[in-house]
Specification:
Structural class: alpha+beta
Shape: globular
Largest sheet: 6 strands, mixed
Distance between the termini: 28 Å
Number of helices: 3
Radius of gyration: 12 Å
Number of strands: 6
């Protein structure tokens, strides 16, 4: 299950969801937004042996500072992909699943930079 860490008062979730397709990840982002109220969320899954699916969501109160499109692009760049989208929701893909854990670990620092 997704555990949130606190970054300067903002809840941040960055985790892998095994076996989830893009639609399931989108639904999970929406559910987490509703539950956490003020949050930055990045979820990822691996399909097959070379496809990474990434989604990111940012609650409305935070989009002025943290943009989902920028966040998902930054994660995707670390897994050999690209993507983007709206400030509140974005999706991307990648081709290097082996790099995904480190890419997700970078989310906290990304958010910290945007909030400071």
């Amino acid at each position: 299950s997704a555990s949130a860490i606190d970054v300067q008062g903002v809840k941040v979730v960055a985790t892998k969801v095994d076996g989830a397709d893009a639609g399931a990840l989108r639904n999970a982002v929406d559910q987490l937004k509703g539950k956490l109220k003020s949050a930055v969320i990045a979820l990822a899954s691996v399909e097959g042996d070379s496809k990474v699916v990434l989604v990111a969501g940012v609650t409305a109160d935070l989009v002025a500072r943290v943009k989902a499109g920028e966040l998902v692009g930054a994660i995707a760049a670390k897994v050999g992909g690209k993507g983007g989208g709206r400030p509140d929701f974005a999706q991307a893909g990648g081709t290097q699943p082996a790099a995904l854990d480190d890419a997700l670990k970078s989310v906290e620092a990304f958010v910290r930079t945007k909030l400071s």
